[in-house]
What we know:
Helix content: over 70%
Low-confidence stretches: none
Number of helices: 14
Order of helices and strands: HHHHHHHHHHHHHH
Shape: globular
Distance between the termini: 14 Å
Mean pLDDT: 82
Strand content: under 5%
Largest sheet: none
Structural class: mainly alpha
Amino acid sequence: MTRARATAIGFLAVLLWASLALLTVRTAPVPPLLLNAITFAIGGAVGLVWIAVTDGWRDLRAVPARVYVFGTAALFGYHFLYFSALRLAPPAEASLIAYLWPLFIVLFSGLLPGERLAAGHLTGALMAFAGAALLVLKGAGFSLAQGWGLALAFLAALTWAGYSVLSRRLGAVPTVSVAVFCLGTAALSACAHLALESTALPESSAGWIACVALGLGPVGIAFYVWDLGVKQGDIQLLGVTAYAAPLLSTMALVIAGIAPATPRIAVAAVLITSGAALAARAGAKLRRVSPD
């Protein structure tokens, strides 16, 4: 698989994650750990189907146990933090803080062997972040609970960036292993839910549909295509283009009638697109100087 194709496949995850905040809000009042358990059970089932079709059972047996522990801890930790943040803080603000992870990926990836950061990567990342910030910043004060929600969102951003960058060091690990990460996360979340939370299920069919949609898309297929992207594609470009997710997420909210359409969205689109293009140009220039 070429680097460009792997990068394009990885970007499919960004498109799917654009619906993460909207779907998460729709699943209320399901508590975070139970939501983890339900959605990751579905995401793991998607992986089992893929393994059965591709006969990938042998590949799973060859994966070291430490890799399964790492992947399960990352998926469990990020989504517990993210779902908790959206339950405590205003979804738009919490999503913005959580979407610091693309910027952290661009910065952290410069520490990987064979990778370098150019001025264009940093400038593009900052431009894209400015566009994302325009979508959601309101300047309003926050209560203590909302402040904790934003802090959890920040920890979620660090968790996902660390997972994505360290996954590059595990490039030889087959993507089918993500199915085990998902099932492990579902089992761990279910146990933690029984010990720590009160059960609350969706109050309508729309809530159940949102849960299933989360499991199939943002908490399912997205992880498999993202794994391919960060291991075989341009991780810095993926980190910057991931800023399209806040824009697409806001568009989904507008279409759903939850958020109003404003000129701010148009300005944000220009900044996000320009930032991604600048980072792509910087990456292409670096590859011409030091080809893989």
